[in-house]
Amino acid sequence: KPVIVATQMLESMAKNPRPTRAEVSDVTNAVYDGADAVMTSGETAKGKYPVETVKMMNEIILSAEKFREVRPDLVGTGHGLFEFGNEIENDDDKSLSDRASVAKAAVTAASNRHAKAILVLAGTRCVLPRLVSAYRPDVPIVVFSPTAKMARQLMIYRGVHPVAGKLRDVPMQQRPTMAIKYAKEMGFIQKGDDVVVVGMETDIEMEEFATMRVTVVK
């Protein structure tokens, strides 16, 4: 499930244009602790500086994630690439642990190849995108969701950029190619970039199975 850290994150900005050190630390630690999202409340609902508050929140988040990538030794243990998702692989639900292994493989491939994005071809349950997010990749997760409702539900997960309905009527074999095409049009990737495409497929003669491709955008 997604984790949202909220309430009085930048409370002083309701009256002042700059936050306190303690508030900056609160937002930063929320990022380090693996929260999917941080949320403002009164600061933007009735404060004097709503736009500045959102900009400041975004700036703190970006700085925290960049610092964690550059100096993981100072952030502390338990915040590595796979720390948030590893426990899922030991789940009693075999289908969930299988998908977690696929998600981990996709994030590993993206890290090793310095990919610019991970494209997820989501099924009707949209489990795989949430698992990819749980492993906290440092690149955008572009999820092609079959419905607008699922796309809205996925927006809260860290790093996920849902795209609704684009691949609904596309044949299974053509979906990876079309996903790359749409991601390129939306500016997530460009010619020459490495990209990871992962998804769950079904076959008449077998159960649902996973596919993953690592390719260069043409």
Can you tell me about this structure?
The chain is of the alpha/beta class and 218 residues long. Helix 1 packs across helix 3 (50-70) and helix 5 (94-112) crosses helix 6. The protein has helices spanning 21-32, 42-45, 50-70, 72-75, 94-112, 127-134, 148-154, 175-185; strands at residues 4-5, 37-38, 117-121, 141-145, 160-164, 194-203, 206-216. Strands 5-4-3-6-7 form a 5-stranded mixed sheet, sandwiched between helices. Strands 1-2 form a two-stranded parallel sheet. The protein contains 8 helices and 7 strands, in the order E-H-E-H-H-H-H-E-H-E-H-E-H-E-E. Strand 6 (194-203) and strand 7 form a beta hairpin. The protein is elongated and about 60 Å long.
Give a brief rundown of this model.
The protein is α/β, with parallel strands linked by helices. The protein is about 40% helix and about 20% strand.
Q: Number of helical segments?
A: 8
Query: Major beta sheet, specifics?
Result: 5 strands, mixed
- Which residue ranges are poorly predicted, with pLDDT under 50 across at least 5 consecutive positions? none
**Estimated helix fraction:** 25-40%
Mean pLDDT: 87
Radius of gyration: 19 Å
End-to-end distance: 36 Å
Give the beta-strand count. 7
Q: Order of strands across the biggest sheet?
A: 5-4-3-6-7
**What structural class do the secondary elements suggest?**
alpha/beta
Query: Percent of residues in beta strands?
Result: 15-25%
Specify the overall morphology: elongated
SSE arrangement, N to C: EHEHHHHEHEHEHEE
